[in-house]
Amino acid sequence: MPHLIAVDWGTSALRGARLDAAGLVLEEKSAPLGILNVPNGDFAGVFTSMFSDWMKPAGTVCLISGMAGSRQGWIEAPYVACPAGPDELRRRLHWIEPGRIALVPGLSDEQGDVPDVMRGEEVQIFGAMRLAGLAEGLFVLPGTHSKWATVRNGRVTGFRTCMTGEFYGLLSQHSILARTLEADAPLDEAAFLRGVTCAGNGEGLLHNAFGVRALALFGRLSPAESASYLSGLLIGEELHLQELPAGGKVIAIGAPALAARYALALGQRRVRVRTFGAEATWAGLSALQA
Amino acid sequence: MPHLIAVDWGTSALRGARLDAAGLVLEEKSAPLGILNVPNGDFAGVFTSMFSDWMKPAGTVCLISGMAGSRQGWIEAPYVACPAGPDELRRRLHWIEPGRIALVPGLSDEQGDVPDVMRGEEVQIFGAMRLAGLAEGLFVLPGTHSKWATVRNGRVTGFRTCMTGEFYGLLSQHSILARTLEADAPLDEAAFLRGVTCAGNGEGLLHNAFGVRALALFGRLSPAESASYLSGLLIGEELHLQELPAGGKVIAIGAPALAARYALALGQRRVRVRTFGAEATWAGLSALQA
Questions:
Q1: B263-285, pLDDT tens digit by residue?
Q2: Which ipTM did the prediction report?
Q3: B163 and A215 in contact by Cβ < 8 A?
Q4: Contact yes or no for B33/B40 (Cβ under 8 A)
Q5: Which of B112, B115, B166 is closest, CB to CB, to A218?
Q6: pTM for the whole thing?
Q7: Domains (ranges, CATH) in chain A?
Q8: C-alpha–C-alpha distance, residues A109 and A80, integer Å
Q9: Contact B115/A220, CB-based, under 8 Å?
Q10: Which of A12, A114, A147 is best to mutate for the B interface (most B CBs within 10 A)?
């Protein structure tokens, strides 16, 4: 099998890895050249400056996942509808140079009359499946827009996006809660878990979020505790909406500190977490080549 | 009974009315001198410049409701715990000049281990009760921080705050949704009601809010429709959390355009709405004098 150049081209960052024939990572590089920071929209130029050396060996193939395949990216690679697995994505690769450079499409799902979308996370899921030796399970990819995906027989059967990270930023920095909240305070586990518990009270986020303000007014949450409590409220709300495998396991893919918060919250529900990081992306792109 | 000067001193505005002995409004005035805009924190000076003429007749009494009684206001008038009615508030008036000028305290409630607070809305509720001739019911005061209050035997037995208006501002102006949303578009009733319906799907606001983005990406909501749909999602979420009197009535107190949105959403749940505006504040302060 030819060498693979695996590229994750997201909104704010561009990362790449050079893999050997067995899929082992030989070298990695990254730059703050996410799709919103590509000078003059010259994606081909950025690609060449970053990866032309790696692309020199004959037969080298490059697969690119993430927002580079969106309408605001290099070229739009239309979404593939769920259920979809590596086979469906491989058939719908969008070749920029046939046989040499391709964009990986994202996935879409439909719930009621409302669509949902992901770009890049599907590759991480397939990578984590390969690394964990799993063909099914519940996957969470925490972040600005968290994704929860269900996998059956190696294919994503459906998923949901939650704006958890973005809500945290808006509420902690731009809302009335910001006045009594230290957004960057280190995690206070007790306050965080108190927020997770509160989220299960059935009163809803619109109301529970105001509780952060009221607790602070009454001196019952410090600014540092308020940040962890709000984080717990939001992650708890997100968990509350999932059908969790009681006594079972969730696969988390993302930054360790954030995945650790999900593990804490899920632990309260007796669900274990196994975590993967950047390696899931490279494994996923490698799985698409196979 | 002496003439009453009724004052609603909120965060951004200062409004007053001169009432006759029967409680009829003789004159009104207002200024953009909310508690955050009082020069040098000179509340007494602003009060004198606005109302000294009205206060001249011997025996005139002034009652002030709203944020002027908060910690950031003129003097803090501590919250009165629910259940509370006009009698409890009258006994806990905070006199600035004994027998002449008083601040009306706000109400507090406690749900689980989380407090809730209102300041000013309690007076509007007691006013609407008097105007409608009601001693019980479910009251909604829509706004930045909407309040839902239950009244039994003339007293507020409990209430909930929902950050509905603030969430609308954050999401429509500062989130990813802002890119495809015309925040000031006039109401599109069909899109609004579609949002209200969606809010009842059990998927939660963190997920449903992302649907606004996905629907726009797929060209299934225009920027103007997106604004109404998001408004419907938020108001629908708020309604979803209330125990609504099926086939019954809710009293809405607030700006007509906003109250009309609640009436539309509640109509979908077969709940009728009766609306009151600024007159509820004057009637409420008048009820406290009696």
A1: 999 999 999 999 999 899 999 99
A2: 0.95
A3: no
A4: no
A5: B115
A6: 0.95
A7: 4-120+127-132+280-289 (3.30.420.300)
A8: 9
A9: yes
A10: A114
